[in-house]
Specification:
Length: about 475
Amino acid sequence: MSNSNKFLTFLSVLTLTVLLASCVNDDDYNLPDLTINEPMIPSDKTTTFEAVKSRLEQAQADGDDTAIIGLDEELYIEGYVISSDRSGNFFEELIIQNKADDSDPASDPRLGFRVDINVASLSDTYEFGRKVYIKLSGLTIGESNGVMVIGKGEGSDVEQIQAYEYKDFIMRSNEVVTITPKVISISGLSEADENTFIQLSNVQINRNELNKTFAGEQDDEFDGFRTIESCEESSTITLQTSTFADFKSLQVPQLKGSIKGIFSRDFRDDFNVLIINSTSDIIFDNNDRCDPIELSCGIATTQGTNNLFSDNFETQLPNSLISGNGWTNFIESGTEGWEAYTSGGSNSSLGISARVGSFRSNDVSTISWLITPAINLDTQDNETLVFKTSNSFSDGSNMELLFSTDWDGTESGITTATWGVLTDAYITQDSDSFSSWFDSGIVDLSCASGTMYIAFKYTGSGEVDFDGTYELDDISIDF
């Protein structure tokens, strides 16, 4: 290399060094300013969630589906974010409630709204517990999928707030708080708890769904629905998980414990659901599940020819409660018991049958038992049970075939007796045709002993516009 080239190279390096040195001040490494400026919200322009709810109710009473807040009306609410889309179980929405806990419920009842926003990854900006202010001017309050929602009005509908404008309406505070869920029983939940953060204790996933994932089954379309049941009462609620949740393919928890989530309604507004932010909201760490005892002797190949008990209900008076022939017809909850009926449709071939259902009963809870007289299983061998069932869109209701060997035969002793499940019988499913009857199969009872009572127990979900009806006929216990 020539001397002139060496000099030019040296000059280039020197120049680059000077430029780099001028760009960096050793004493001044400035970090980006992450400070959130607290929004300046006029105190005389803020209102309560309760007032906004009342405004919607007034509009609905006047025949309108929504309440529109005019652009000339400066009005704000403040609340706390209780949803998170980080795990994919919420999408383009914020759920906010007015308080971080359930203190002072009398003068300031805990309420929540869903805010629909055409933006993904909202938890990056509005994380769980973040205090936010919502400018209501120009927005609309309504109901969607059965819950109260805030968004942009479009006729009688409430549409999403768009990406270009949402920060003009939803402003975040510096404050991030700890959200304390309201601890409540399933049966204690009401419409006032919708869009709020709750905790259910001493609950578990129904035993028949323990082999399933949250929402990764073949028939899970859009959402997976799993049954959460209480170990303290005969109540259930549906756990709803999006098929876009990053935990959808995980197996549901096998033990029992507590679960936190947002109380809501399903997409069609048919039944109540609980939606979790992530699997960390579930603490099922108790091995002592509360499943009933199961009895399975299998399905027999032949039915006995000697009868111990039978009923086809032909002697019953239609539209009256089932009585006589040793039956115990007990209403544990609600007003609906097992009654005799005759169908004018395709079910009429069986004549008079027994039925029960809570549809449009206005009962918060329906639990009804139809129990056979005592059957002594020690005086003969090879006992079998057969019956037929049908339904009229059972939907959220359920019928179980139970047995007890320690019930004392009194109505007062029904709920304190030990009841197990006869698992081998087929009971009609909601997916079955409502116009057909289904055989139970020849249920083998020969592996049991002692004096047994057999019960057909109906449980409604509490959604009286969604619960259907079960029908029962041609019961026979033989050996």
